[in-house]
Amino acid sequence: MPQHRSSDAPGQPPLTHRAVRRFAATGLLAAALFMLASVCQAQGASWRMALIPYLSPNVLIPLFQPLAQHLASESGHEVDLFTAPSIRAHVERITRAEYDIVFTAPHFGRLAQLEAGYVPIGSFERPLVGVLTVRRGGPIASVADLRGKAIAINDRLVLNSIVTLQELARQGIGLEEIRIVPAASQNSALLSVANGDVDAAITVNFALGQVPAERQKDLQVLFQTPETPGVPSTLILVHPTMPASDRDRLEAALKRFARTETGQQFLRTSHYRDVAPVTHEGLLSLDRYLPELRRLIAVANGS
Q1: Which ranges of the chain would DSSP assign to H, the alpha helix?
Q2: What is the spatial distance between Cα 12 and Cα 25, in angstroms, rounded to a whole number?
Q3: What is the pLDDT of residues 23-37, one digit of tens each?
Q4: Which positions ≥6 away from 226 have C-beta within 8 Å?
Q5: Hey, which residues does 227 pair with through a beta bridge?
Q6: Which domains, ranges and CATH numbers included, belong to the chain?
Q7: Would residue 94 be called left, alpha or beta, if left means φ above 0 and alpha means ψ between -120 and 50 degrees?
Q8: Helix, strand or coil, per DSSP, at residue 47
Q9: Total-model pTM
Q10: CB-based contacts of 63, cutoff 8 Å, min separation 6
């Protein structure tokens, strides 16, 4: 194994005083250049943006890349997109304030605001609706047929899962009468239905559009929950330590994004309607979901 050798190890010529001075000067110059580079990097450092993993990474990252590029061009900071291996990992990370920008579900964003100090700057507008999808031509024709069936859910923490399961309970199908099967993402939950691996899936209303067209014909919406007016359907937030000037620049860039050709294409592809401001009343309306969210987190943590 080769040995590390220092500059004054045996077999190396000794450093002269002139060489030492030259070496020291070079070192000081290198240190100065490093400090200058560090300052420049800090001024235009990359921002880390977290995306809630409601879709598979190979679908999610390309979908949001136009937004990241727009925010980068408007702010002067590169925006790097990150997702998480699970919904729970995503919630843990944003409540630890690990990211500069967060795109997430509304109740997760409200939790991150209350627990980590994140500041909301906008929302992608879309009705808050939960959808239950079954295999087209399969044995399930009504809600009553779901008894004893396997239902794929991305995660119980997801808001559309909470509202859809509550709606099932109102229609007489309790949790004890179905079998919940975890899914890596909402589009994978739908593919599991199309493949016949599970009987049904609970997703958001636009997830069907993220499934390949040739598989969509195998799926059929059994029911969807009523729209919940006044509740933000998503939240975009920034880190509490982000300077107000940067925060304002991002908020303005987000509004402009919806008026660009790229932004319009993003809205069509992602099935959002528009960029909407976040109101205090809208944030307060999310508090009704926090007790159940915190309960589910506590159960998962064994507390």
Answers
A1: 17-43, 57-75, 87-95, 106-116, 159-170, 186-194, 213-216, 244-257, 261-270, 280-285, 290-300
A2: 21
A3: 344 444 444 433 433
A4: 129
A5: none
A6: 44-126+230-300 (3.40.190.10), 130-224 (3.40.190.10)
A7: alpha
A8: strand
A9: 0.76
A10: 55, 266, 269, 270
